[in-house]
TrEMBL record:
Domain GHMP kinase N-terminal: residue ranges: 91-162
Gene3D superfamilies: 3.30.230.10, GHMP kinase, C-terminal domain
Domain Galactokinase N-terminal: 3-50
The species this protein was found in: Deinococcus humi
Keyword terms, alphabetized: ATP-binding, Carbohydrate metabolism, Galactose metabolism, Kinase, Magnesium, Metal-binding, Nucleotide-binding, Transferase
GO terms under cellular component: cytosol
Stored PANTHER family: GALACTOKINASE-RELATED, MEVALONATE KINASE/GALACTOKINASE
Any one Gene Ontology BP term: galactose metabolic process
Protein name per Swiss-Prot or TrEMBL: Galactokinase
Highest taxon above the source species: Bacteria
């Protein structure tokens, strides 16, 4: 890919990167104060910055081989809002040359959060911003809300800012308390791209968030995190009943997974996929096909769609040492759309 020096004729003043993430359990709970269990993936987004002495930001995406020119203080279009949102919220008043490259596939692996966190890390270094890693992640969430138009929760940016590839990160998205959790013994993670594209702002993501907020209001609780008896959701009208059932049961699955062995953890993942498919309705027929192929493999403990849904990636927990072989076998069965992302 084209480097910063090739595009701008000089080296960047600062450069920073951040990883994508895959979520093992705890999907669509983070905007209801719930529990999540992501881990970082090896693929990263990298952002280089250099002041250009003008009143215009020059934004270059090496992946797209595309350059955008956005006046300081404005937002721009295409991929610009992910970057200009970070610049504007950080008080940047001078033009910057910005070079972006990313190894994180789009669709379920938090490519946008990785881009935001990498940009904010670079800005923190360039301007000496007083942002710890949690505050930095929360600024990334603000970018999504105010500039991108996705009313996301806090998981993706927190995972990109705080998680590593060696453990899972349990996050209480209400208190922001977190702790590292080991992977189940004898298991490893396989991530595959279904080849089905999706864009959150054009999907039902914001609609789902509005539905669970309405469900919480009808149940008289601040958030569905506060529902302790899942039977309570059965009093709700459809589809609020199904949406709330997913969130409440998913929180239970995350907590059950903390001490689970690999087989039990895999069963929880399978149950999450069924809940996302049937109650939350954020899956896709081709994604369901890929998940079913993975679940049928002898060395797979469990598999599910990951991320916000409507396409994108799937994650499987597999017997240690078998991820490459399982992924290659399933790609053959699934066809040309699928590909192994991790390992």
């Amino acid at each position: 890919m084209t480097t910063f020096e090739q595009v701008f004729g000089q080296a960047p003043e600062v450069s920073a990167s951040a990883p994508g993430r895959v979520n093992l359990l705890g999907e669509h709970t983070d905007y209801q104060g719930g529990f999540v269990l992501p881990t970082a993936i090896p693929q990263r987004a990298t952002v280089g910055l250099r002041r250009n002495g003008t009143d215009t930001h020059v934004l270059y995406s090496a992946n797209l081989d595309r350059t955008l020119h956005v006046p300081v203080g404005e937002v721009g279009e295409d991929f610009a809002p992910y970057l200009t949102g970070c610049l504007n919220l950080s008080g940047v008043t001078e033009g910057l040359n910005v070079h972006v490259t990313s190894e994180v596939p789009s669709g379920g692996l938090s490519s946008s959060a990785a881009l935001e966190v990498a940009t904010l890390r670079a800005l923190r270094e360039l301007y000496g911003l007083d942002l710890d890693n949690v505050a930095l992640a929360l600024r990334g969430v603000q970018v999504e809300h105010e500039f991108v138009g996705v009313q996301c929760g806090v998981m993706d940016q927190l995972a990109s800012s705080l998680a590593d590839t060696r453990t899972m990160l349990l996050i209480d998205t209400r208190s922001l308390e977190r702790r590292a959790v080991p992977f189940p013994a004898g298991a490893e993670v396989l991530v595959m791209d279904s080849g089905v594209p999706r864009r959150l702002a054009e999907s039902g993501y914001n609609e789902r968030r509005a539905q669970v907020e309405a469900a919480a209001e009808l149940l008289g609780v601040p958030q569905l995190r506060d529902v302790t008896d899942i039977a309570a959701v059965e009093t709700l009208p459809s589809p609020l009943r199904e949406r709330a059932r997913h969130v409440v049961s998913e929180n239970t699955r995350v907590l059950a997974g903390l001490e689970a062995d690999a087989a039990t953890f895999g069963q929880l993942m399978n149950a999450t996929h069924a809940s996302l498919r049937d109650d939350y309705e954020v899956s896709h027929p081709q994604v369901d096909e890929l998940v079913a192929l993975l679940q049928a493999q002898a060395d797979v403990f469990g598999a599910r769609i990951t991320g916000a849904g409507f396409g994108g990636a799937v994650v499987a927990l597999v017997r240690e040492g078998t991820a490459v072989a399982v992924g290659e076998a399933v790609v053959v069965q699934y066809g040309t759309l699928g590909k192994v992302v991790v390992p």
